[in-house]
Structures are given as structure tokens and as C-alpha cells.
Prior knowledge:
A: mainly alpha; 8 helices; 76% helix; B: mainly beta; EfeO_Cupredoxin (chain B); Cupredoxin (chain B)
Amino acid sequence: MLINSVVLVLREILEAAILVTALMGLARIVGLGLTWFYAAAAASLVGVIGLAAVLGPVTDMLDGTGQEVIGAALQYGVYLLVLLVILDTRQRVCGRRHSRFTGWLMAAAVALAVTREGAEIQLYIGGFMSVVEYRQAVLLGSALGAGIGISAGILFYWTLVTRPRRWAYPLCLFCLCLLATGMIMQGTLLLEQAGWVQAGEPVWNSSGIVSEQSIAGELLYAVFGYEATPGPLLIALYGLGLALSLMASIYAIRSRAGGGDD
Amino acid sequence: MAFVAGVASAQAAPEYTLVIRDHLFDPAELVIPSDTRVKLVVHNQDATPEEFESYELNREKVILGGRKATIYIGPLSPGTYPFFGEFNPRTAQGKVIVE
């Protein structure tokens, strides 16, 4: 149970931690600072507790598929907010790469990303608190998994912010493009699970190269929604999502002082 | 179009029931037809939550204790697709057999 808890919590934490720390890295690179993170933390806490509290009724909605539809909405919401964050870091007349909205957009993206993963962890830990024989192992394993996931996020943050200034901003945007587009992949899988879309027959099977169950597969899933057997719909939406976010990034990178205002 | 087709075929999908009891899936093997989308209703009769998870089926869903949840799977090619309960992976294991 100890190892199970480590793996389960690590998987959930890693996805959110990488995105959150990429946004924190971007905030530092564009000189925004991290005061917005207090709002993000508070909103995340409310989101996690709120979703976990209503997950039962949510699951019963839409003929038993409400959980997927809410989850997909959260994932698509993260993509949209990251896209807006990227656009909002274009350079203004005064040379700034942020507006009064940037921090709020980042906080909202963090809150949506943390809500879904956090609610699952809360249910897992809460569910086993009543089972005395598992309680200690679940708590210890969860703490270890959370620690490893947060450490990976911190490592990612420092990797981004310690790049040479010229490269740090485009690298950060590129990472955010991959991370956000991965949310499109995960959201679409949820809609397929709910019976709302059909992804179609797998176009390829790369599980022989990188299995989704391997550490590399888990990491790739966390970073860009790696899927070993994607159907045509998933590939099309991934391509569209990546193209849109890359175009937004190129626009933001190429903007120069005098090219726009708040 | 994919959306409309998906919703339409989901509404007509044959239904199968899977029960979680004492951290075990019952039945542990579920036989479904190939090239057909099916509606899987998972009833968690334990007091603790469980997460239905399958890498092969690309599915994951938390099911609270004492509750039911719906998961659509397929259309699938003939073969065996393992699934497990992520909260109790040692005991909660099963497979979907597509014929």
C-alpha cells in the first residue's frame, strides 16, 4: 500500500506540478513576480475541496458521465487560459511583458489544473482514513509521492529560469505549449470515455517503444499527454491545439516595445 | 460529425455491469463483442472509493464507495484488455475480452 500510494499521488501531483511551475517560471521571466500565486493557492484549495465534496452528484449527472464532462471542461479551460497567458506576455509600449490581467489568468489556470488532480488525491486519502490497517502507509506514501512530484516541479522551475535570458522566455512558452496541448489530449480522452466523441481506430501503436505504464511513459503523459494508441480525432485536435499555441507564442515573442498596449 | 456520431452510438450501446466488492472486480473477465461501443456500468459496493484504470482501454475514473459510474469503451479489435483498480491494484484486477 505504501508503494501504491507513492505512485498514485506522484502521478497526479506531477501533471499539475509541472504546469504550475512552468507558469511560475514564466511569471519570473517576464518580471511579474509571484504575488498572484497566493490567489492561485486559495482558489486551488477551494476547487479541490469543492469538487471532492460534490463528486458523487457530479458523477451521477449526464447518465453517469458527469465526472468526465466536468474533467474535460477543466482540461480545455486550462488550455484556453494558458493560451491567453501566452498572448498576454507580448511586449507593451513601456517594454513590460505583463498586464494587470496576467496574474489572474495564471491563477485561474493553476486553480483548474490543481482542482481535478487534487480532488482525486483527497478522495484517495480520505477514503482510506477509515481503514486503520492502511492509514499509516497511505499517509506516508502520499507524502512521499507529493514530495517527489513537487521536487520535480521545483527542478523544472529552476531549469527554466536559469537559462540565458534570451532563451528563457521562448523555452518557457514552448514548454507551456506542450503542457497545455496535453490537456486537450486528456480532455478529449475523457469525452471519448463519456461517449460524447469517437476517437476512431488507433493510427499507430507506440507502446513497444514507450509504454504508457513505464516511468518514461508516465512522464511524457504528464508533460504532453502522451498516448501510445491515438485515434485520428486525438491527433487532429492535438495538432490544432499545438499549432494555435505555437502561433500565439511566436506572436508574443516577436512583439516589440510599441507593438501593443494593455 | 464525430461528436454527433459519438453521442448517437453511445445512446444505442449495449450495457454491461461490473461490480467492485471487497476490492475485487466481479466478473473479473468481461466478454464483449468486437467493433462495438459498449456501456460499462461499474458499481462500487465497497465503502471506500476505487479508480477504474486501464492503459490498454485508455480509461480512468474514480468511483466513490457505494456508487455507480458509467464508462464507454470500444469499438475494439478482438483481444484482451486488462484493467485494474488503481486504489487497490494488487487485488482489483480484471480484463475485457473482445471476441
